[in-house]
Records
---
Amino acid sequence: MSNINKIIRKRRSVYPLQYLDKEIPKEIIRELLENANHAPTHRLTEPWRFKVFTGDRKRQLGEFLAKKYKETNSEFNDSKYEKIKSNTTKAGAILAIILHRDLKERVPEWEEVASVAIAVQNIWIALEQYNLGGYWSSPALSTYLGEHIALEENESCLGFFYIGYCEGSDRIVQKKPISEKVEWLY
Ligand SMILES: Cc1cc2nc3c(=O)[nH]c(=O)nc-3n(C[C@H](O)[C@H](O)[C@H](O)COP(=O)(O)O)c2cc1C
């Protein structure tokens, strides 16, 4: 199998519980972001933006999200509250995934969401070479990020990409066969 096929098929979600307690060098994060920047984009709107949380800013993000969880959930669950906080500190870095909507709305929003998702995938498939794992978290709490950091009016948070060093992952989500999802038309 070609290398690129192997890389794509080995990609998986690796969750903070499995991360090693190790910072990620900024140069590596920059390389990953450079990959994101090569995503395709209709009318060259380049709608992907990232806010990179490292060091103590991870903890602060966790405190904010946990507080927001407490404020906005009547059925408050203590272990979830603690998990929100521990996930952020366990991560080597957290990228807030931001959609920067074209001000003139020259393309439908879904096309820009698609471009942002492709940018995230470019990061995701490049992680393994560095022994990094990652996962996309999309909690409802993402919508409050603008209360914690400055976002422009045309920007919204599509979730967080957690990244951390890991010793591989044995969690394999078997996908249903592609043959069930494809119709060939002759
Ligand atoms: C847009 C998007 C949002 C996701 N949000 C969450 C999430 O909020 N919580 C979670 O546990 N996993 C989330 N995931 C990860 C999926 O659970 C994961 O991709 C799925 O279980 C398949 O596993 P795999 O990535 O290892 O193939 C998200 C994935 C995507 C693409």
---
Amino acid sequence: MMGANRAWCVTKRLALSEITCDDGNELFELDADPRVMRYIGTGHVSTREQVDEALRRIPRAYALYPGLGTWRATRRDNGDFVGWFALKYIPGTIEVEVGYRLRFGAWGKGFATEGAAALVRHGFDDLGLYRILGVTHPDNTASQRVLVKAGLADAGWGHYYGRPVRVFACVREAGWQPAWNE
Ligand SMILES: CC(C)(COP(=O)(O)OP(=O)(O)OC[C@H]1O[C@@H](n2cnc3c(N)ncnc32)[C@H](O)[C@@H]1OP(=O)(O)O)[C@@H](O)C(=O)NCCC(=O)NCCS
């Protein structure tokens, strides 16, 4: 089963693995669907050039920011490509956000919540982050619901990526101690 072999992390139903330059076609197909891109950036589908640029940037980030990144998600039962999940700095800020983009055929099965919750846990337990944000288009209610189910709470309006967004946030529990100190 591809994906599971090079999995960086597994959840109950998903395998997350590092993105490589071989993943261009899948990512381009994902970003070519207007239903998927409706609430992303300007709402337009991505060009091949934009996907290729992301493919150069994403693998470099694994070494630059250990523990953070963007991961390709596949189903553990059949290896099907589901989309991607990310835990990464919001450009130009010190905030870390959780994000995800799933193929239309994979929506409505709880996959986004499962992957996002796993990355939030990883961010707090393994990386010791203090706060994790989720930023959404104001009308992206499905994504907002995913963030709430992953443990984030509505934090009102914010301004990221050059536009007004709805911000969700979660801080780690009081009294948190790093497990690696024990
Ligand atoms: C947003 C997205 C990740 C959701 O994926 P998913 O796997 O369907 O999400 P889940 O099944 O885990 O949960 C979706 C929740 O939103 C709810 N939901 C779905 N569509 C909704 C809508 N139009 N309005 C309100 N709630 C909605 C679902 O009922 C579910 O909540 P529930 O479990 O309480 O019933 C997926 O639609 C997607 O990839 N969209 C395109 C990219 C995107 O917008 N990414 C987020 C950028 S901030």
